[in-house]
Every structure is written in structure tokens, then in C-alpha cells.
Amino acid sequence: MTAATVTEPSASPRRRRPRPGRTVVLNVAAVIAGLAVWTGLSVSGITGLTGPVEVVRRGAELIADGTLVTDVLASLRRVFTGFVLGTVLAIPVGFLMGWYATARALIEPYVQFFRTIPPLAIIPLAILLMGIGETPKVFVIFLAAFLSSVVSTFQGVLDVDRTLINAARVLGASDRTIFMKVVVPASTPFIIVGMRIGLGAAWGTLVAAELIAAQEGLGYRMQQAQLYYDLPTIFVGLISIGVLGLVMDRLLLLAERRLTGWQERR
Amino acid sequence: MIPKISFRNVSKSFPLKGGDFLALDRVDLDIADREFVTVVGPSGCGKSTLMSMAAGLTEPGTGDILLDGAPVAGPGPDRGVIFQQYALFPWLSVRKNVEFGLKLMNLPPDERKRRAEHAIELVGLSDFADALPKTLSGGMKQRCAIARAYAVDPQVLLMDEPFGALDALTRVQLQDQLLDTWSRERRTVMFITHDVDEAVYLANRVVVMAARPGRIHRVIDVDLPYPRTEEVRLSPEFSRIRNEVWHSVYHQAPAA
């Protein structure tokens, strides 16, 4: 057996890939244009709208007196606790649902039902049942993360190619081996997509969760700022939330590339 | 001598709306040790079902499937299966794919490496041992699948239209490579195809099946010498057998 040829992973003919340098220039230009529009609006028209300069000054103050760092850490701790608990539970539950029809039939009604309730609508209930400590905040974030990643994990298990499972079986793999060596890796791309959606949901629930009698956190700070008509602080909070969310999503994307680079892109 | 595989009065029906569909009707077939048998027939004749039952992936309805005289119970590494869709694990390199079955045999690592290396060499993929399946062409993927099946040293190879998804040229190359591999390390092969030329070129015997209900129509011996070469492929004798098989595939009398 000789004469081997490799097909190069061919560049997709459908999309022309822009040069990376050009993309960065355009990104930066868009951000500058946005800041210019913002400045323009605040200078010329809308009453009380603060401009970027003032927001930066306020941001520096909040960093200098340690408020911003405390708030960011408090918020991150809540998001991470809720997100980690949510996904750690969602992955085995998703696998159970995908692998055993019985488990699926028992669990799916609850998942589908609670998925239709926005996690924020749970807040009144959570306060009454869990008080006003950290628990209800983390719980609501947990619920948001769990519900979004469980569905995608279980879909991933359902979608595992039957021929791959058969290929493992004819090589002598037990059910356990098939699960660990075929089902888990084959559904990893779905799990990571689920985690990204879960993180988005967790982050999106944060501010509202911090309405529950928090003493610190980005959402709490923005609430306070609202009471005192302190727009710069609100902007600092919004921008922090956006930047942190973006960074976390990029980190997961990086993990996705590393873990699922074997996928054939069609 | 006990045949390697025998199908004894095997029938299989699948439940459908409005009654059962009889996929296979009383099939009897013996395949001798180290024989290369191809099974050809129109779609719906149950040829893949037949193979799937020999692999232990599908339960027979009635009748017996025997391997060395003992009934088949579920899939096992004594029967290697090669699928049309390659079924390589896309997250594993060629080498890791080939080692998959070996790991399940709990071999010492040295032995495992040696056998994987040998199987990869047998199909000519040594230069691509660390490549991921996504970087391989269809033909190379199927060679990797063949290496994976060979590595665990099965007595029987069951191949379900393995070259069906490949272009005509690659297909001819892989047929030659398969025969080359097979002549060096002979196994019992049951090869499903819908390509008459392929069926005749590879086999000691061609089993022609008929559809509705799926059953064996004729068994045609191929008295052509191995190694099969281009010369054989273009010989009048090859054409004669090919025509005979063609006729029995495409001009079947309707079922009584």
C-alpha cells in the first residue's frame, strides 16, 4: 500500500476571510466612532447624560478607593459559584437524560417547565424561602446556568453518531467504556456550547439577583447610584459587566477551540 | 469441516405500520474459513441486515447464526466490522483509533504499540499515524478503519459497503489494497456491496440476493486466480462472470 495523498483542510470558498490586521483596525475604528457619538450626544443634547471623560474619571475614583474591586469580586464570586454549581449538576443530569430514556421521561417535564420561567421571576420566591443572604442570589444564578446547559448537554448525548457507538461495541467495548470513551468526547462540543449559554444566562441574572439586599456587587452599586442620580457610576458598572462577560466568553471559546479542534467544519 | 460462519434458516422481520416487513426470508449460507465472500443485491434485499446480525449488532428473528459452530451472542472483537461511514473517532489520531480496540484487550503497552504500528503499516498509513481523521481523505479514513479492525486480530472481517462513499478511482485502488492486505494476512471476509464489478473482483464466491422478501437468489463461484490484477479485471473470463452476476442481480424473476 503506497500512493497516499492528503487533502489539505481546504479554505472555505463561501466565505472570504478578511485579513486579521484589517479586522482589528476596523474594530478599533468602530469603538472610536462609538465613543465620539456618545460624547456628541452628552455634549449637545440629552439632559444629564454623562460623557466618556466623566465616566473614566469616576471609574478611576472607584478603583482608587477600592470600591470597584470589591464589587467586581463580590459579583464574580456569585456568578462563579452559581455557574459552577449549575454546570457541574447540568452535565451529569444531561448525560442521564440522554443515556437513559427513563431518566429523560422523569426529568424532562421539570426542565422544560422551569425553562419557560425567567429565573428573575423566581426571585420573590427565593427571598421568601431562603432569606436575604447569599443563598437566594447564588440560587437564582445557579438555576439560570443549570437550565441552559442541561438541555444542550442532553441534546449532545442524543446526537452522538450511532455508528461510532457500534464501532466501539464491535471492538469489544462495554457500556461503561462506550460512555466514557465515546459518548463523553463526542458530546463535548455541545457541552461547551451549553456552558457558554449558561455563563451568559448566569451573568445576565446577576444584577437582578443583587437587588436582593446586597451589601456589595456591581448590581448593588448601580442600584445605589440610581438612588443618588449618579450616572457615571452606573456607566462604570455597565462597562465592567460588559467587559467581564466578554472576557469570560472568550476564555470559554478558547477552551472550546482546544477541546473540540478535532471537529470537521462543514 | 465446520464453516467459519453459518446462517441457518435465518429470517428477520421489522414491525411496520400495517404489518411486519419481512427483511430476510429463510437464509442459509456457509462461509468457509479464510474465504472471501461478497454479497450483492438490490437495495432492500437485507444484505446489510444479514451482516449486522453476523456482527451481533442486530438480533436474528428466527434461525441461528453460528461462528465456528457456536451461536453468535452480541458483538465481539473476534469479528471486525468496517462501516461505510468509516466510523473513526474524530477526536483520536489514526494511531489512537487503531489502539482503541487494543486498549480494551488489556495488552501491555509495548505489545499494543507494536500491533498498532503493524496494522498502520499494513494499510500504508505510517506517515499519517498522528494525523486527526479530519485531515485525511475518504480513502485514507477507510484504510485507517481497516487498520483498526485488523489490529485486534479478528478471525472474521465484516464489511458493509466500505467503499460505497468513495470515487471510482479511489475505490479501485482500495480494492487492490484490500486484496493485498487480505492475501498477506488472510481472514474470513464477508463483504457487502451493490457494485457488481467490485463483488466479482474481490470474491471467491458472490452471493446474489433478491428483495421483497430479502433472500438468497444465487451463489456464483468466481474461479479466477489471486492475486487479482488489472489483467484479471480485463480478462474475458472476468467479463463472463460479471455478466452472469449482473443478470442475476438485475433480471430477477419476481418473488413467487
Write up what this structure looks like.
The complex is a heterodimer of chains A (266) and B (256). In chain A, 76% of the residues lie in helices and 0% in strands. Chain A is mostly helical. Chain A has one domain (52-259): MetI-like (MetI-like fold, Orthogonal Bundle). Chain A is globular and about 70 Å long. By secondary structure, chain B is an alpha/beta fold. In chain B, the strands form two sheets. In chain B, strands 6-7-8-3-9-10 form a six-stranded mixed β-sheet, with helices on both faces. The interface between A and B is large, with 29 and 42 residues.
Fraction of residues in H or I helices of chain A: over 70%
CATH architecture of the domain at 1-75 and 189-256 in chain B: 3-Layer(aba) Sandwich
- Largest two-chain interface: A-B, 29 and 42 residues
Low-pLDDT ranges of chain A = 1-13
Task: Give the strand tally of chain A.
Answer: 0
What's the CATH class of chain A, please? Answer: Mainly Alpha
CATH fold category name of chain A: MetI-like fold
Structural class of chain A: mainly alpha
CATH superfamily of the domain at 1-75 and 189-256 in chain B: P-loop containing nucleotide triphosphate hydrolases
- Beta strand count of chain B: 10
What class would the helix/strand composition of chain B place it in? alpha/beta
The percent range for strand residues of chain B is 25-35%
Coarse shape of chain B = globular
CATH topology of the domain at 1-75 and 189-256 in chain B: Rossmann fold
What summary fits the major beta sheet of chain A? none
Which properties best describe this structure?
heterodimer; A: 266 residues; mainly alpha; MetI-like fold; B: 256 residues; alpha/beta; Rossmann fold; six-stranded mixed sheet; 8 helices
Task: Give the structure's gist in a few sentences.
Chain A: Keywords: Cell membrane, Membrane, Transmembrane, Transmembrane helix, Transport. The complex is a heterodimer of chains A (266) and B (256). With 266 residues, chain A is mainly alpha-helical.
